[in-house]
Each structure stands twice: as structure tokens, then as C-alpha cells.
Known about the structure:
The radius of gyration is 21 Å and the shape is globular. The chain is built from 13 helices and no strands. It is an all-alpha fold. Helix 4 runs antiparallel to helix 5. Helix content is 80%, strand content 0%.
Amino acid sequence: MRIITVLLFFLLTASPTAAQSFEAALARGDSAQAALDIEAALRFYRQAERLAPARADVLWRLSQLHTEMAAGEEDEGRAQKLCDRALRYADRANEASPRNAMVQVSYAIAYGQLSLVAPNDDKLDLSKKVREYAMRALELDRENSVAMLVLGIWHREVASLNWALKLLLDAVYGGLPDASLEESHQLLSSAVKLQPGQIMPRLELAKTLIAMDREREARQQLRKAVSLPIGALGDDKRIREARELLEDL
């Protein structure tokens, strides 16, 4: 009996619990994503999902990962399917944790990516959803830099629409909510302060500064952006875009 008791004790203490296995898989997924190994990140996140299928922290990660995959997909049909999958993961995450800011951000970025490949008739509704979910995320977490980034881009894109298109949208679809370059600047500046080592917030802030005719400040952000190491999927394209903008300026 003593031997059996010792063996049972050893097995129970040596074997990881399901919670420990989940956390390990989640951490390995995060590490793989940071290393830009999307296939490995997907594999580890799915492992975590199998261990805890109702945990919002893995479901919103899977949602955002599928949106990133859609952004790198050249075939619009496949990109749309990836966005649809991202939204399904966001739905499951929302069921598990409706007051989680990262869940709401997942909706915003998925709808934003979907708007790039959706039919023109759907783009206005999708744009409204991007704003709606980004604002929800900021209501839940005032320092959510991803929500600031998404909403800052939204303000710039809507504020930069030409007057004729705005009149058409007002007449046919009831228009879009108010947007301004000033609000875009404030949001993107805050995102840069919170994530100073990321390329995308600086590039997007530079674009807003260019739209505001503040070219000297835009050049500063672009120079800093191209000096930063690649840290996210798509950063190589962003660096090329930043260099092209610098040349244009």
C-alpha cells in the first residue's frame, strides 16, 4: 500500500493539470506568434482551445490570428472565409466573456478586414460596426492600444472622404457617424505612447499627420517606424510603405 500511495502521489504531482496544460499551450502560442510563426501559433492555440473550449482568452486570440491571416491572403475568397472564421471565434469569446475589451477589439479588427473584401453595398454597415466595437472596447479598457489604433484609423478614413461621397452616403444610406482628423491624431498618438516599439501605430499616426499637413512631424514618425525591428505579421510591408511615404515627402 505504501508503494502504491507513493506511486499515485508521484503521478499526481508530476502530471500537469488541465489548467497548467492550457496555460502552457497559450504561452507557447503567444511565443510562436511573437516569432511570426503563424502555423505554430495556430497549432498551440487550437491545442489550448481543445483543453478549454469556452475560455475567452484563447478564443479572442484565435479570432485575431485568423484576421491576421486574412490580411496576408491575396485571394479575396479565402480572405473572406478567414474573416468569417474570425467572427465566429469572436462570437464564442463574447458568449464566454462579453465585458472583455479584447473580445470587442477582435470584432472591430475582423469587421475592418472584412470591409476590404466585402461588396461595396456592405462596406458602410461594416464601417459602422468597426467604430461600434472599437468604442465598446475603449469603454471597457481606456488604455486598450489596439482599440485606439482601430478607431484612430477609422476617424482618418471617414474624415478624409470627399464631400461628394459624403453627400451620397447621407442621401442613400443615412451617412456615417461624425469623424475628425483631430480625433484620429489624439487616438493614434495615445496608441504610440502605449506601444512605442510597434511599427503600425507610428505608420498610421504619420498618415494622419500627412492628412493634417503636418509633414515635419510625419517624417519623424516614419523615420522612427523604419528604425524599429519587425515585431508583427505584416511589418515588412509597413516598413516598405513608410519608406515610400518618406520618399514622397
